[in-house]
Amino acid sequence: MDIKIQKVEQSYLPNVDFSNIEFGRVYSDHMFVAEYSNGQWSTSSIVPYQDLCISPGNFTLHYGQSVFEGLKGYKGDHGEVYVFRPFDNMKRMNISAKRLCMPEIPEEIFIGGLKALLQLDRGWVPGVEGTSLYIRPFMFGADEYIGIKPCSAYKFIIFTCPVGSYYSEPLKVKIEQKYVRAAVGGTGYAKVAGNYAASLLPAQEALKEGYQQLIWTDSIHHERIEESGTMNLMFIINGAIVTPMTGETILSGITRDSILTIARDWGVRVEERDITVAEIIEGIEKGSVTEAFGTGTAATITHIKAIGYNGKDYHLPTVPEDSISNKILNYLHKLHRSRTEDKFNWLLHI
Fold first, then answer.
1. Crossing angle between the packed helical segments 86-99 and 254-265, to the nearest 10 degrees
2. What is residue 176's predicted lDDT score, i.e. its pLDDT?
3. Superfamily per CATH, domain 171-336
C-alpha cells in the first residue's frame, strides 16, 4: 500500500513525562488517514495529528454513523514495539461497520496503516511500567448531507496516545435498574458511538451517588447482568470464572476472550452463561461470590470492591495477590511486553 507521509516539523515528544500521563489527554505526533468514496478505498496518508475540517452538514454530526476500536501497543525490554491482538480488533470493527451500513476496512489499510504509523511514532510507545500506547482507530460518514441514508464517503483514521492506568483502584459500582444500554435487535454488540453517548446520563447519576461505574442489566426486566460501562464483567463463583455470554446486547471483548482462553489453558473452570442479579447478591451474602472484576482494553482487569443494589452496598472480600484474576493479570502484563511465550500468537511485532 502506498502511504504518503507528512512529518511534523517539530516533535512534541520531548515535552512528555511518561511517568505521569493522564489517560487520553496527550496525543502522539502523527495520525493515519484513509478515505473511501465511489465504492472503493483510495488515498492513504500519515499526517501530523491535527484538527479535522468538516462541514456543519456532515452526516455523522447529525446521525452518528461512527464506529471505533481501542487497542494497545507496548514497549519490550529491548525497545521492541508490540501490539496486542490487532487482527481481532480489525475483525470486530468490520462487524460494527456492517451493522451501520459502512464499508469494511481491508487488512492492508487497517494493519498496514497501523504498522506504518507505529514505525514512525515508535518513540511514543512508553516503556514505564504500567503504561502503554493507546491506539484509537475510528471511521465516520463523511457526506455533507442531512438526509437519512448511508453515506457514500467515509474517513478512517488511526491516532494514538501514551497512557497510564484507566482505573487506579478497585471500583464501587451500581446495578442499573432504570436505564438501558442495549436491547435485542439494537447495536449493543457493536462499538458504535451512540452506545456510549446514551450511557453518559445514567453514569453521571451514579457518580453523584458515589459509584464509579454501572452494571448494566437486561432491557426488559433488569434481572440479568450484562456488562459494565467500559468493561465486560466476570465473577468468581465457587472457584469458577463465570461471565455472561456475549450476544446481541453484550460486546465481544477481546480482553474478555484473552482471559477466558488463558484460564481454560491453565485448567481453570470457566462458565459462560446467564447470571442473574439475585444470584450475585445472594452469592456475596453467602460467600460463594468471592470476586467481581471488569475486563477491557483500557481496564485490563479491574477489581470491584462493592456493588450497589436497591439502596444497599454489598462489599466483596479483598482480592489476594495469588488469586486467579491477579495471576492472569500478571501474565498479561508479561505477555504484552513479550516477557513470556506468546503461545496464542497474539502479539504483532512492529
1. 130
2. 97
3. D-amino Acid Aminotransferase, subunit A, domain 2 (3.20.10.10)
CB–CB of 38/302 below 8 Å? no
C-alpha cell at position 33? 488517514
pLDDT at 207: 96
Question: Domain coordinates of the chain in residue numbers?
Answer: 4-164, 171-336
The residue with cell 472457584 is 239
- The Cβ of residue 349 has, within 10 Å, a number of other Cβ atoms equal to 11
Separation in Å, CA 224 to CA 135, 175, 296: 32, 10, 20
Taking 70 as the pLDDT cut, the residues of the chain under it are none
Secondary structure class of 270 (helix, strand, coil): strand
pLDDT at position 41: 97
The rounded distance, in Å, linking the Cα atoms of 280 and 259 is 21
Query: Of the candidates 13, 15, 7, which has an alpha carbon nearest to the alpha carbon of residue 48?
Result: 7
pLDDT of the residue at 203: 96
| Residue matched to cell numbers 491477579 | 326
4-164 is classed CATH 3.30.470.10? yes
What would the pLDDT profile of 301-334 be if each residue is shown by its tens digit?
999 999 999 999 999 999 999 999 999 999 999 9
3 state SS of 342: coil
In this structure, which amino acid lies at residue 7? K
Please state whether 85 falls in left (phi above 0), alpha (psi between -120 and 50) or beta. Answer: left
Per-chain mean pLDDT for the chain: 96
